[in-house]
Amino acid sequence: MQKSQIVDKIRAARFAHIQWVQRAKSLVNGFAIKEEDIPLTADSCTFGSWFYSDGQVLLAIFNEKVVKEIETLHHNLHDEYFNIFKIYFDLSNLSFFQKLLQTKKQISDKEQKKAEQSLKRLEKISEELVKNLNIVETKINMADESMFEKYV
Fold it and tell me: Residue 35: CB partners within 8 Å, gap ≥ 6?
C-alpha cells in the first residue's frame, strides 16, 4: 500500500467519524434520525470497518500503544452514543428499526440534561480520537515512501 493510499483512508475514516458524531448532536438537539443513525457496534460503523481492516496497517507502522488508544477511544465513543440513544428510544425491541425510529420517547428535562452531558463527554472523546488520527497522519506524511512498500 502506498503512503498516499494510507493517508487517504485515514482521512476518509476521520470524515466518517465526524459525520457520525454529528448524528449524536442532531439526536440531542431534537432532530429526527434515520436508520443509519442507530448506534452500531464499534466494528460495524464506517470508522470501525476501516480500523479493523485497512487501519490495521497502523500496527505495523506505529507502536501498539497509539493504535490501542485509538481503539479504546472509538469504543468509548460508541458507549457514550449508546447512552444518549437509550435516553430517547425504547430499546426493548431493536429488531424493528423503523418502528423504533418512529417511537421517540418524550423525555424529562433531567433526561435531556443527562443526554447533553453524555454528548459533551462524547465530543471530548471525539476530539481526542481526531487528535490521535491527526498525529498518525502527520507521522505518515513525514515518513519515507519506501517504508510503506512492504504493506499490501
Answer: 97, 98, 101
> Considering its fold, how many domains does the chain have in total?
1
- Containing domain of residue 81, as a range? 3-148
Q: Name the nearest CA neighbour of 133 among 69, 40, 64, 78.
A: 69
**pTM of the prediction?**
0.85
Encode pLDDT of 68-94 as tens digits. 999 999 999 999 998 998 888 776 655
Residue type, 48: G
Rounded to the nearest integer, the mean pLDDT of the chain is 85
Q: Coil, strand or helix: which one is 39?
A: coil
- In degrees rounded to 5, what are phi and psi of residue 126? -60, -45
Question: Using the 8-state DSSP alphabet, how is residue 52 labeled?
Answer: T
Q: Is the dihedral of CA 152, 41, 116, 33 positive or negative?
A: positive
Q: Dihedral of the CA atoms 75, 17, 98, 101 (nearest 10)?
A: 80
**For residue 108, what is the DSSP state?**
-
